[in-house]
Amino acid sequence: MKDLIRIKSLISTEVESLLNQQVKKEAYSSSVYLAMASWCNRNGYDFSSEYFFKQAEEERQHQLKFYKYILDMGGNAISPDVTGIKQEYNSFREVFEEALDQEISVTQSIKNIYARCLKEQDFVTNEFLNWFLKEQREEEYKARRALELFEVIGEEGTGRWQIDKHVGGIKYDSEA
Amino acid sequence: MVNTTQTQELSTWTNVFGTKQGAIYQCDEERCWYVDFAGKVAKFDYRCLLKLKKAVYHVDIEDRLLNSGKSPDVEIIFICACDHTYVLNLLQIIALKEILEGTFVMFQLNHIIQDTLYRLPL
């Protein structure tokens, strides 16, 4: 009997399902960042708004990377429903706290897929995921650095204006 | 759709997994599967077989068993872009699920065997 399932697809149905969940997660992240960009813009934090627009675009690119990988490997990529995006925030700081939470949740989710692939010895998908693991270093660093600005600058007086200005300049250029 | 399995067809089909209620056969030549269940033999390609599995697994059997409502004990298994539809009662759903579970375990086993016997020694 031919191994027809393997002939049709490189990835198992379990990994395919996890990757589709990740597509949804990235799409959700992109929408959350877009809502954050809107909130920041409406409240006068233009640099932060621009920062979140860029983040939204990056998450969208991540979503497409996963989406195309599933298709390239013979799987069925599912265009996700994205609902329940929070539109209002109580404070400038809360926006960045939730951005970091979002990134931590994405990292955890990718680690989960990685663990499943190791169990199945799906090293091809593991190799594909390596790029995302490295990307998460940058994403978490930037989100953590933004929160750090609240500590070192402080929110009093023109603090929030200063924080906003510096958020625009956050970069991660580690070669490690 | 085929209504009965002919001896000639059975000789080219491999019985992947079967129970008293039905069976799933693989046809290597056509690269498809034949599901012999509920009085008919239906042909499924790769995508449709996965959709059938998803649709059957999606039925919440426990919820159906505990539900004392008056709604009929019938589930319509409709698969998009596939020629076949099943109208099954709960016992048939359980039986079909058992066949599909067994089939996919056999696929995994076959994958391991193919890897070990043919792919890795080369």
User: What structural category do the secondary elements of chain A indicate?
Assistant: mainly alpha
Please tally the helical runs of chain B, counting DSSP H or I stretches of 4 or more residues: 4
In the CATH hierarchy, what is the class of chain A?
Answer: Mainly Alpha
Helix count of chain A? 6
Number of strands of chain B: 6
Of all chain pairs, the largest interface belongs to: A-B, 10 and 12 residues
Distance between termini of chain A? 48 Å
Number of domains of chain A: 1
| Sequence stretches where pLDDT stays below 50 over 5 or more residues of chain A | none
- Silhouette of chain B: elongated
Helix content of chain B: 40-55%
Number of domains of chain B: 1
Q: State the CATH superfamily name of chain A.
A: Ferritin, core subunit, four-helix bundle
CATH architecture descriptor name of chain A:
Up-down Bundle
What name does the CATH topology of chain A carry? Answer: Ferritin
The SSE string of chain A, one letter per element, is: HHHHHH
Strand content of chain B: 25-35%
Rounded radius of gyration of chain B (Å): 16 Å
Order of helices and strands of chain B: HEEEEHHEEH
List how many beta strands of chain A DSSP finds. Answer: 0
Main location (chain A): cytoplasm
InterPro entries (chain A): Ferritin, Ferritin-like, Ferritin-like_diiron, Ferritin-like_SF, Ferritin_DPS_dom, Ferritin_prok
Enzyme class (chain A): oxidoreductase
Protein name (chain A): Ferritin
